């Protein structure tokens, strides 16, 4: 009787051991079996920063490019129609050093470009022809001067001009990019470097993909000064850097054709 009780206890103990091993085995298998979903989880948590520079080329361009080159970072330049030899040299550097060119209209003249859909298209075409002749690149990405929801355009083309233009440009195959992180370097002629850095820090907080608006202009010397700090902050916050392209992440104030 005594041995029978010992036997039952021993059998129960073995059953518990086997059961525990199976659970453990299943647990391990669940972790090890789908490596693809584990990889996908890592990819989807990636943080990407798209640095963008508007209105160049300018006297700041070569300094911006030097900083980007030193840190091995690629950015997107939304340029306008500048035809000096220096500007052409800068366009070559932008392309040769692996950055992306975007169209920011030839004239950047709100009154002219936002007068009608046709006027806008002509200005974009003019810049694309110039860029193609100069550096052999014809951008299919755009940034609207003032952003896609700007109201200054209303004075020239009326209340619905931006929805008409965005609809037309999207149907022609252009993708456009506003921004979800402003550096606020346009808030003053020459904004303080500290304000620029702080704005990027606070506006990027909690965002996985960020399109950072900065300006490449002669007077924006503090943007250039802030750039190394911005890059280092974003790197330490886990972002890697990429260029914008037709199929990349976008952020739009106004959806194409909506007013
Ligand atoms: Zn601009």
UniProtKB/TrEMBL annotation:
Residues 47-242 form the NodB homology domain. CDD domains: CE4_SmPgdA_like (cd10944). Transmembrane segments: none annotated. This is Polysaccharide deacetylase.
